[in-house]
Fold this sequence. Notes:
By secondary structure, this protein is an alpha/beta fold. The chain is built from 13 helices and twelve strands. The strands form two sheets. Strands 2-1-3-12-11-4-5-10-8-9 form a ten-stranded mixed beta sheet, with helices on both faces. A two-stranded antiparallel ribbon has the order 6-7. β1, α1 (14-32) and β2 form a beta-alpha-beta unit. The mean pLDDT is 96. Bound molecules: 3-isopropylmalic acid and manganese (II) ion. 3-isopropylmalic acid is lined by residues 74-75, 90, 93, 246, 277, 279. Residues 246, 250 line the site of manganese (II) ion.
Amino acid sequence: MELKIALLPGDGIGPEIIDQAVGVLNAVEAKFGHKFTYTKALVGACAIDATGNPYPDETHEICLANDVVLFGAIGDPKYDNNPTSKVRPEQGLLAMRKKLGLFANLRPIQLFASLADRSPLKKEVVDGADFVCVRELTSGMYFGEPQGRDEANTYAVDTCKYTREEIDRIVRLAFDLAGKRRGHLTVVDKANVLETSRLWREVAQGIAPEYPNIKLDYMFVDNAAMQIIRQPTYFDVVVTENMFGDILTDEASVISGSLGMLPSASIGSKVALFEPIHGSYPQAAGKNIANPMATILSAAMLLEHVGLTEEGAAVRKAVDKALTEGVVTEDLAQKGEKCYSTSEVGEYIASQI
Ligand code: IPM
Ligand code: MN
């Protein structure tokens, strides 16, 4: 198969982990006889430095001209400590999601069996945990207007807004996904307080009769935050609004042993985007210590998305091999155990394809 991949390494550890994912994709290409071509583009702080815009038009055009996008990470501390800065790297990521129409972010939370002992949670709690968080990605508090300050700078405002249509399409996608899995969908909201959450429930209730085989339930987000680490095996598919999904999936990554393990797929229109759920980890940038597995697993999701199921499975198997052989970066290494560099882990995984 010929596949055109836009590569957006972004900031911090982004370039290092993308390099390793490309190494693994090269191994897949050679082994299975495909032709992958790559076009690099700028997004985030590096794009601001080069063009003044965190998501330049040129990058958008490159995304549209390719079949899929593989993205690293975004963010730079020089902006975090400068709250009045008008332009921020994260705006690039939000603009990219919005302009590409990527309204659904699928974040699978899975535990590789070989990592059960490395999770900070008890083995009997995390054993068998396997659920997908469907995070709404292009609306809610991240995008609602008004957002900003009053002229006298005495207050700030963010707006959480959802239309019926925005809720309908993401909830349907989650119902469909639950139908392909264990048939259990949990809508996570704060319907005891928020009007947007009450609309989410209303829309979900309206759709439910079309999916009589799906067991549907609702959970308040504060309770969900607790249940996710108390009893993660309860969940099959979770659907939730943008910010709740952002927060809950960082929390859920603990189940897998490390934030450096979780991949994601953002879908919704012609071009799909694949990215690790972690951030740019600026403290580690350039040090060759970050865990490349979340990005490599994102590449596996990318392959599966375009129908290369066997290839995706080969990547997962190679990651599993690295884990069982203890070829892991410092975030996963246990006390006294040798840990490997980003490139050593990536090269080992590529060699196992
Ligand atoms: C994520 C990140 C982003 C988000 C940031 C970098 C804007 O945390 O992809 O989860 O909040 O969506
Ligand atoms: Mn996040």
